[in-house]
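Appendix B: complex inputs.
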Amino acid sequence: MSVVVGYLPHDRGRAALRAAVEETHFRGGPLVVVNTTRADRLVDPSFAQDEELVELHDLLETSGVDYELRQFTSSEPAASDLMGVAREVGAELIVIAVRHRTAVGKLLLGSTAQTVLLEATCPVLAVKG
Amino acid sequence: MDNLFSLLDGFATAVQPIYLLYALAGVFVGTAVGVLPGIGPAMTVALLMPLTYSLEPTAAFIVFAGIYYGGMYGGSTTSILLNTPGESASIITALEGNKMAKSGRGAAALATAAVGSFVAGTLATVALTFVAPTAAELAVKLGPVDYVALMVLAFLTVGALLGSSVSRGLVALFLGLFLGLVGVDAISGQQRYTLGVPVLTDGIDVVLVAVGLFAVGEALYVGSQLRRGPVHVIPISKGWRSWMTREDWRRSWRPWLRGTAIGFPIGTIPAGGADVSTFLSYAGERRLAKGERKEEFGHGAIEGVAGPESANNAAAAGVLVPLLTLGLPTSATAAIMLAAFQRYNIQPGPLLFENESGLVWALIASLYVGNLMLLALNLPLVGMWVKVLQIPRHYLYAGILTFAVLGAFAVNFTPADVVILLVIGLLGFFMRRYGYPVAPLVVGLILGPMFEAQLRRALSISEGDPTTLVQSTFAVAVYGALLVVVGLSVWLKGRERRLEAAIAEEGETDQVEASVGTVTKEQS
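Resulting structure:
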């Protein structure tokens, strides 16, 4: 069985990745790292670029787990992409990063983390950076 | 001295809190649209024009001038940090600026661009203060024949010389001239090209064409390729006060001044907007650099950012000289500002400085104020401007389309105008898609009727003798200048191509280095 992690190129994302690596060591099976964008804006900071990918590969190589990176453009929200991959590989656990949000932020914007927590068909590990 | 007193009067108007607020709004919006690629000051002024009808002219023009200047500032930010020029006058900046950012000196590049823009903008505004009234005095003496010559110059430079393709520029220009013919002939009262449709008898409103081409056309174009992968923003260090070292200042001040000296005159003569001047400034700085500095060009030389950035701001001020004194626009934004003037029943031209001196001097004073605001807005707020780029395209363009349709409807409150807007929007989409420049069309549309009126006046004075067109010394001088400009532009195009080839060569070696370290991305 495998572990799926939603990767974001910032501190909280890296914390989630570290937790996912630990879980993979513990549970065995490959780690699937997912990073997607809807490509509907000029700049998307949550889409990992070259240097961040190099860093990511380094980190995963040294951790010694069997991993696979899935980075792609899709028209779906990030939550659907993540759960889609989890279903496809038959994931045992999904690891995501969560953060504190303001009341206004919660009112205006949807939450990827909340969608995954409520709709995923397997256990979800939420990591606070 | 008269000018100085008028300018002080202008300042007295411009520093009133309400006008300061308008100026702030203008430069704020201007910087935002300058940052966003595809949305330029021309489109923004066109979109806001219907909304400013309720304002008095002074306030409206202070907003427009702020947008115009702000656009010039904002373009440099994306050029440097993303290698995606926000508008055409910043393309050259991307050459050196982006290389600087990649080597970790992005903050210095941004700072030299902002301070350079401020220095050049202020100096050029000073020049505008003194040149414009003198030019206006000279312009009073010009007859219809001279105007015909000047407009031919403006048509050919905007249509044929500025774009990358002469034939496409001319097609766009003649399309604009044709659209300008639609409506009732001013002298005989005959209907022309109205196809018997009553809506067309008043002609096609400039606002509809401008908004249709710039806003609707661009929105459709972006819609046709909505999902393109995100680009990388180069992060910059915090603490903008320490951005430029003493060395950077020492290397920058001369290019700033040279850029201003190149940009202002080029903006002033009806021979092209800011793009030409940035190229000339870049080529000049490259040639002047010695030893190590010369090697640095192509790898992030600060002179290559400082020069062109000051040149484009100086040219932006220069463009206002022919606009205010002759009523001749030489850039798309200036053309739309001219349309706005006409909407308020103010005719820019030699008499503007006499009849509307309060308005003009308040406008010029607001340029000084706007420059200061832009310096304050740009340096500390770079982080925020970069965030603007994270707005999803569909939200942005849905908003623009809404504004466009609302504005088109507000022109005459007739639904038919909205239909015309959409038809012109489709035309704009295809022009954008197949690489036809839009600016010549707008300039042709606005200047066309004026050209026709002056030409017919000239010919009726001479009783139909066409040789009258070359019998005024001024007109002959203008045609002579046109020949020189054509010659220069052929030479310049050759140089530009060689320079681009040289840069492309350097760029290729860089790309090879970069691709070695690149991890191949999985696509699915």
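The CA atoms of residues 3 and 130 of chain B lie 7 Å apart.
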